[in-house]
# Entry
Amino acid sequence: MKVLVTGISGALARLLVRKLLKAGHKVRGIDKRPWPDPPKGVKVVRADIRKRPAEDVFRRWKPDAVVHMATVTHFTVSHEQRYRINLGGTRAIFEHCHNYGVARAVFVGRHTVYGAAPDAPLYRTEADPPLAAATFPELADLVASDLYAASALWRYPDLATSVLRLVYSLGPSARGTLPAYLSSGRRVPTVLGFDPLFHFMHESDCAAAIVAAVESELSGVYNVAGPPPVPLSLLCEVTGRRAVPIPEALFGSMLGRFGFPKMPRDAAAHIKYPIVVDATSFAETTGFEAEFDEVRTMESFRFA
Amino acid sequence: MTPFPFYASRQAKARVDLLQLPFNRYGLDPFGIHKDSLVRFYTLLRLMHARYFRCRAHGADHVPESGRAMLIGNHSGGLPIDASMVLASLFWDLPTPRHAHGMVEYFAQEWPFVSPWFSRIGQLPGLPEHATRFLENERLLMVFPEGARGTGKLYKDRYTLVRFGTGFMRIALRTGSPIVPFAFIGGEEAIPTIYHWKALAKLVGAPYVPITPYILPIPRPVRCEIHYGEPMVFKGTGAETDEVILAYVEQVRGRIAELIVQGRESRRQRLDATGEGA
# Structure
């Protein structure tokens, strides 16, 4: 299968490319960021996914499947920019998929779209509404792009679309939202008196799950997870970090200072309450099983 | 990582090992229950259960040894000592201990220290999603269908049952779970609520703050009893009309009222025998 990966230079995308190649697929990618030494046979087009050169890849190469990973988070770009890239980019990709006869599209989203709230169920199913825009407004663009991507399901019925809501990825690359939170100076700011469950999966399993989605006849919205969640305190302990509990009133003003990572203030909700997903439907449909359990996942990050 | 700064007894540890819970290498189950926290929690409960409240269980053999079931009972007393004593009773009084999952008021989730405390012992907010998931995982669920209306009863209304919610019955039907009714006796004497301090309740986000004749809502060391009834099985899909559901709920409520009468009588006899008044 010819698989086009947008946002191919990201850490998880690079892992995905290696797995796709191993499974015998042909891979090409689009990204604004460079990937200086991609594996042999992988061509990376340096372009903005909303611009003409990106469309040309569809026109000339005619991919069978597209994995859309070119979304950005608050760690990299400003709020306004994010809206444009995440929504405008997603729209462009799905339109190209439709216009150039792509059979399958996989949108790689995040489980954080469900949002963390005290009155939310511990295990979220795909039927639960995404609340993140209310509890953590900085994530509004990700919620919007997740829901927008799912609209392709009725907009383009002959394109098999799957929207994946992946739990946090963790692993030796130390890239992504959770590692960014855990990595700065080994001191992890937590909210005093709270210890939520964190749901994560080994980055290699994240990539494997995306491959499973590409190779199956998946169509719909799916939560993707592997091992069960663990409390934040244990996550800090096993990854060799020191949890520094901060009273909630001071939490916002401590971020970005005293060696703590820079985060939006509203991120506190995600450090107080759990976001855990029920991924049985994905596992049943694709037969996906995670290779790494929670302990090996944490250790792979710690001893990378 | 345990939020319980309390010692762990050997007996509690031995009994936690007998629980049918799928703990991983770190003693965690998929719902976030932490084994070590559970041991400490039950050690503390043992003191309250056996020494402070001198709880006695009747008909504990009505609780199924394994598999899904719903424990439905009356709320007794202004603080959730009834719930914790039922948990203790299921853990300490049964031949094979069982761990029950309570359905907690939402506000408890927002309180620092309290929220992880409840989470590590599997007491989650009272959402239908949680109830269904626990039962589908063959767990024991403990529900007080009176809700906060029930714990908020004043002393003068003791052992009356306020309106029952009906959600539990639909979940029981949908998941095919037997209902074990029970009556808790003693809580209302332990914390006799004479007044609700509404202003403070509003400030801390609780449904009410009980005030006792001695001001503070500290439970008195009175004897408590738990009376379990035989399991009630209702057949249905959970999609019945409200009238049908209400009739089923009334049956459960009626059975609990009977158990309360039986329990109060049994407690009175026990107090007469020991020469205690309350």
Observations:
- Residues 2-302 of chain A form a domain with the Rossmann fold fold (CATH 3.40.50.720).
